[in-house]
Amino acid sequence: MSLMEVLNAVDKLDPSLRQRMREFYETSETYKRLLDHHNSAYLQTFVNLVNSYAPPQSQLLEVGCGNGVASRMLADRGHQIVGTDISPLFLAETKVWETDRLTYQVADALDLPFPDQYFDLVCSNELVEHVPDVQSVLQEMIRVTRDGGRIVVAGPNLCSPITSLLDWIRLLTGGTGRPIWAETKAQAFQGLQRNLRYYLQKRLNPEPNFIFREPDLEDQIIGGDADSVYVASTIDLEKFFQQRGLTIIKLSVGFGLKGKIVATLCPRLSPHISMVVQK
Prior knowledge:
- There is one protein chain.
- The strands form 2 sheets. The chain has a 7-stranded mixed sheet with strand order 4-3-2-5-6-9-8.
- The chain has 9 helices and 9 strands.
- The protein has about 280 residues and is α/β, with parallel strands linked by helices.
- The protein has one domain: Vaccinia Virus protein VP39 (Rossmann fold), CATH 3.40.50.150.
- Mean pLDDT is about 90; it is low at about 1-10.
- β5 (about 120-125), α5 and β6 (about 145-155) form a beta-alpha-beta unit.
């Protein structure tokens, strides 16, 4: 299957995919080196987002914390936080950071080892696009959040027509392409058409429409979420949470002037998911 092909039904995904993805994240030193670029500067926007919606000294959970830096930054803000990730490899260097406010734990996002209603706020950054069963992960995040608590989900909106439009314009004006999604002008234009179609379908469909693709699990760094399996969309998450009785506090939180304009005028089209939900 081509990297550009997507699947419209969950049951078409290879049943072995979940285990293959797990093994990839547990063993790929190359991917771990990619995570090393997720430093405090890279994660500052996400940390600011979580901190702004977390009451002082909250009990927090970060699901899919990767190299653990964001969890450490949130602990430095005075919160009590547990950072979890499926990969012991990613967490190998975090033990030296642990304090009475900060702990790390290897855990599968599909089966979080915490009681119901345990955390004041549960957050994830660049996680949902990497799991083949998004609905179950979101349900687990809801389960461990206390009543009245909040959930923050951040990451790329891979269905955003704005991202595809910018790809196309950049290539038309002599710029470089985006790996996988828009490496040529023709590919960028096809991506724009596809994402416009997805956007309209998702807006008109009363149910969330989770679209999946076969990830590239070759041990190489090519960028662009090559290993993503869920073609992430703000609209899917919005409908999923609303159907379960949760309240959307912020559909999109913009950062910087352009980001704030997009988040205000067309939050579902924003290139970035930055959603805040209250249980």
